[in-house]
Amino acid sequence: MTPHFGLPEFGFLLRGLQWTVLLTLVAFAGGCSVGLAVALLRTCGHKGVERITRIYIGIFQGTPLLLQLFVVYYGLALTGLKLDAFVAVAIGFTVNASAFLGEIWRGAIQAVPRGQTEAAMALGLHYSSRMRDIVLPQAIRISLPATIGYLVQLIKGTSLAAIVGFIELARAGQIVSNQTFQPLLVFGVVGAMYFILCWPLSWWGSRMETRLALANQR
Amino acid sequence: MGYTLDFSVVWHAMPALLWGCVGTLGLALAGMTLAMMIGVAGVAARDAGTVWLRAIVIGFVEIVRNTPFLVQIFFLFFALPLIGLKLNPTATAIIALGVNGGAYAIEIIRGGVQSIHKGQVEAGYALGLHKGQVFRFIVLKPALRAIYPSLTGQFIMLTLTSSICSAVSAYELTSVAQRIESDTFRSFEVYFSVTLLYLAISWLLMLGFAVVSHRFFSYPTR
Hints:
The structure holds two protein chains of two kinds. Chain A is an all-alpha fold. Chain A has nine helices and no strands. Chain B is an all-alpha fold. Chain B has nine helices and no strands. The interface between A and B is large, with 37 and 36 residues.
């Protein structure tokens, strides 16, 4: 007898949701730290380094996230390391996030008025202080709407871990759907869960964008 | 024992992979066309329609933009037969790509229409242009010029997203790759090469879009 979609199935989806959130948080934290390095290298002023980071970003923006996951997943397996599926997938998302966040922050760093850097140089501040105390605080403010936009994209992107076989929300949905033969109900619930996760962030991001635009008009 | 990379399987499978590229391009172009139609219709409904129509369009855009494409395509895969549309996986994939891209197109096109100042339309009439000319030269062309970069960027995203359609086994590059992978067990070699093929596809599209932009949207210099 096939089970109907009830509380146990809903609980299974909720556990999948937990993994989705955890995967997003790990990938976002990893992507932020590597992405900052990418953004700083991309704006460091050295022609060769800037070109290499531009190619790095271009590769990730020009290929599907799904294929990037496949390459990282099977590539890591080739190195002989016995990695947990979660770790392998998290590394894949981290690398992808580092490229996208790096490009967003590159734009933000370059959007900070040049006079700010020049003033900091005139005050005799060296590179690390100039970046940490003058440029980056302003750049983060400028980049916040786009960063939140990418976070939403990342949450949705983690659903692709399902295709590699890691059990998060989308994969949990597939499993429950196959068990209960109620695909519309199950994927409706799964979609609603993603929506509840993403929509407040989208709303927050677009509100911040409007406010930032108003502040720039003045 | 070490693993030796062997790309010869990829080389032997190249004809199939290139047909997969054709499949991906076809899927993407059909999806883009549908997305544009949904985009234009959505903007028209949102701006000219009743309060209800407007709410439906806004709700549609928010739902599509805040849920994963994978869940959308699974939902449509099971929902379309219920409303009497029994389609093959590739047609289902085109509809899913069109619906997904359409929601983004609505937002982009709306921004373009809003960027045309009302005074410019009035100036057009004052110069004696008739309605069709005003729409073509004063509304449509500048609006398209304004949204062209974000629209084509979205189209390239749509092409990359089409790889997810392999989940319902539509005919495109990733599903061809998955078949070759399960035949040869050379997972890394196959997926690495296919990633490069996708890179080539998106460069080709970028180049094509740039040529179109140069041909149609550059400002007259004479």
